[in-house]
Amino acid sequence: MARIATYEEFWPYYLTQHAQPLTRKLHTFGAVVAVALLVLGAIQQNWVEAALAPVAAYSVAWFSHFFVERNRPATWDYPLWSLLSEGRMAWGVLCGKW
Q: What is the residue range of 86's domain?
């Protein structure tokens, strides 16, 4: 596959890699846990707790790719766009779009 050049092209690709409703829900769960760890870590000044945020998010997300979607995480090739899309997709799930 050719390298995706713009975020506008990336977003539809990202959605195809997260086609299963369970994948989207697992990603959203991981994102919510990560945000909670970041906020609680900052409030409590517990930087170990805050540092666990990406571990929580990625472990749940990658589990969903390996065992639900059976594909390769887009994060490996497009880390920044994937992070932006994670938030966008999680917001959509939380708002009932998916």
A: 30-94
Question: Does 9 reside within a domain?
Answer: no
CA torsion, points 76, 79, 85, 87, in degrees to nearest 10? 110
pLDDT digits (tens, 9 = 90+) for 20-40: 999 999 999 999 999 999 999
Using one digit for the tens of pLDDT, what is the confidence trace for 71-84? 999 999 999 999 99
pTM of the model: 0.90
DSSP annotation string for 24-49: HHHHHHHHHHHHHHHHHHHHHT-HHH
Q: Which amino acid is at 58?
A: Y
Domain count, the chain: 1
Domain membership flag for residue 59: yes
